[in-house]
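Re: the pair you flagged

First of the two:
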Amino acid sequence: MTPGKKILSYAYYPGCSLHASAKEYDISTRGVCKALKIGLEEVPDWFCCGATPAHNVDELLSLSLCAKNLSLAEGVKGDLAVACAACFSRLKTTQHHLRHNDIQRKQVEKAIAAPAPMEKKVKHLLEILARDFGLDKLEQAVTKPLNGLKVACYYGCLLTRPPEVPELDDCEAPSIMENVLAALGAEPVSWSHRLECCGANFTLSRPGVVLQLSNAILASAKAAGADCVMVACPLCHGNLDIRQKEIEEGYKVQYGMPVFYITQMVGLAVGVSASRLGLESMMVNPQPLLKEKNLL
């Protein structure tokens, strides 16, 4: 090892979606980190963080679920790497609440029978790639630039808001996704719906709302000339990818727009094998687009 060279190594909290409906996000995350020599050690015995529903039902339960997971992460060296935007939001929200509310902190400590852990930094993969690893190094790691690929970077609701919690980027005018994408050689498009809600977990309770909101997002991306959409949230991916055919049928439109996870985009550019990116799991087949752009 070169003297003074910092080795990046993180505790890793995949969350439920990445071990189930969003396996391709987990697979591509591990593939990218291996290619970039970023260490990941999965938090032992982690469990559900409560995601978006729990805090609407029982706030103490929601805070306690996240606090216990943060406590488990204390046993692994390094900051806590999180890929799912919903998990990232809940873990960061818990730390924020417990730092500013002594009553809630004491209630949570009683519930988990342990001190509330608040010191370990929780970082989204975007932050790790753009800041810890660095955009210059990321650009140098590119072996197959994503030249000619026009991408709509979709942040959704949770990555940057509320502003005092995620601390990832400017909540109204973020650029971290676009910066990562530009380092890969792709072209981020300017579009109107990058921060709009897709309907998230209304998927089962109010599917009509989801179709309406997600259609508006896809229509905006298409109008901006995007070839595809890039996301960092399994909920957003589900609504824009899995429901895309249903949206097309309901609104009599044709998008055929692949929806990639950020790690799939990075993986393509840094030489991770397509078999390690989970591309076959995407409902909208990305292969025609990638072959057209000479990226497969």
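Second of the two:
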Amino acid sequence: MVRKLSLLLAGALMGASAMTLVYGVPGSTANAASSETYRQLAIFGDIFERVRAQYVTPPEEKSLVESAINGMLTSLDPHSSYMNAEAAKDMRVQTKGEFGGLGIEVTMENDLVKVITPIDDTPAAKAGVLAGDYISKIDGEEVRGMTLNDAVDKMRGLVNTPIKLTILREGADKPIELSIKRDIIKVKAVKFRVEKDDIGYMKITSFTEKTFDDLQNAIEQIRKQVPDDKLKGYVLDLRLNPGGLLDQAVSVSDSFLDKGEIVSTRGRDPKDVTRFDARPGDMVDGKPLIVLINGGSASASEIVAGALQDHRRATVLGTQSFGKGSVQTIIPLAENGALRLTTALYYTPSGKSIQGKGITPDIKVEQPLPDELKGRDVSRGESDLKGHIKGVEESDQGSGSSAYVPPEAKDDIQLNYALDLLQGTKTDPAFPPNPERAVLNQQ
């Protein structure tokens, strides 16, 4: 059976655990624990000892402790958790945007790893790996029985270390053996192209340390390809983007704003408010901008969409976003583990929280599902998560929507609607937006 959801819904599935990251230690400290708290901790210690000594098979003590810690944190909300050394390392790799590997985008199909595309100028591309290839063995070990994450972990590794792939290719009469040496792979956080010969299209896949630089490069390349007098505007695609680093969301928003608040975060203490403001300068010189969102747009994506919408700098098109309006602080712990703890909620420039509500598009455009996905639940939203923090703007309607984007642009109704608006073949009262009607927090 073809597991097509693995790639198409990757962002949406990640959205359930998407992080807005702020490194450091929270500013406020808790009051001293009461005697009742210490009594409960003594009960926990007693239970731990009884399990360790009397359980039918000897338990792994480290696993018991980690499970207990995670149980405490996940009871708070779906985004707080404990990361052991390995999980913390993976998180740092994801946010840095580069790692030692081969340079291929993959999914799982028929219990094999299928290559979606090799990334240009990477070890995989240079070795002759092609889109559509199936990887059946990694260093002689059968892929069948592995999860996609297991296979990806095996293909990543130290730079300059070799790996052997066994590839099944349509038209080849026997498996192909390739020996490849790993190298540093820099994942592009922004993909771009020119649409209709006069529109810049930029898709932000995640908010890593490289996102702002990649966006800046995308804008520069588009402007080289299309003369300024012919460039009708830009589409900023945030669909299936699960979020990432807060500072990168601020920088991306600032790229299109000249002034005013971008986002504010508010913690447990009413005085614990941090505000991020835009600096002078619009990288696209005020060109029309349409932002695409759907149920897979979470966290940092919603910060950008909310800021540009409130300032009336962009028209937001698509369906209701995921609705993750919380900030997670990453607190380093001993032995390279880390605590991911929800320490604040963020608010758009109008002073609204999107927690459990999401960003409502200015123009709602549904994306129909293909026949093979009809009947499946492809909707994603914070309000559906068990134990989520109830948002002040949250209603019975909840947050989120369908998190599907067609693989082919010709089938992408939301994108083509945006292109038609920019080219003037479609009109809507919400486009272009009027900056004089910006909805900003006056407090």
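The mean pLDDT is 89.

-B.
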